[in-house]
Design goal:
It is built from no helices and 10 strands. It is an all-beta fold. It has one domain: Histone H3 K4-specific methyltransferase SET7/9 N-terminal domain (Single Sheet).
């Protein structure tokens, strides 16, 4: 059984320091690090393997609404990433296809958008 890891995450824009933990992930040798806002809401869930972000990633606003969802490979954003505004709408400037940590194409069109 993996030991829990406590990490400190300093929040941006004046957020209080948050605490998180790690738990075993589905991939061999990986963990999922969960960071929290001071109010107890989840800030982010980050898959980590061999000390680098590797696998699914989710980030939330302080009210619990989703901010971003995507994946990392070897520490760099990879594949389709979806970003939302604080009002809940799709952030088209940040959403899209990422390769090697860079946005290389617009977000794929979806029904109703």
């Amino acid at each position: 059984m993996k030991l829990s890891l406590v990490l400190l995450v300093l929040g941006a824009a004046g957020f209080a320091t948050t605490l998180g933990h790690s738990r075993a992930a589905g991939r061999e040798g990986g963990t999922v690090q969960t960071a929290y806002y001071a109010n107890g809401q989840v800030l982010s869930e980050t898959s980590v393997r061999d000390g680098e972000k590797d696998g699914p990633y989710r980030r939330y606003y302080v009210d619990g609404a989703p901010m971003a969802e995507g994946a990392y490979r070897d520490g760099l954003a990879e594949g389709v990433w979806t970003w939302w505004t604080e009002q809940g709408g799709l952030d088209r400037e940040r959403s899209g296809l990422y390769a090697g940590g860079r946005r290389v194409a617009d977000a794929p069109a979806t029904a109703g958008s």
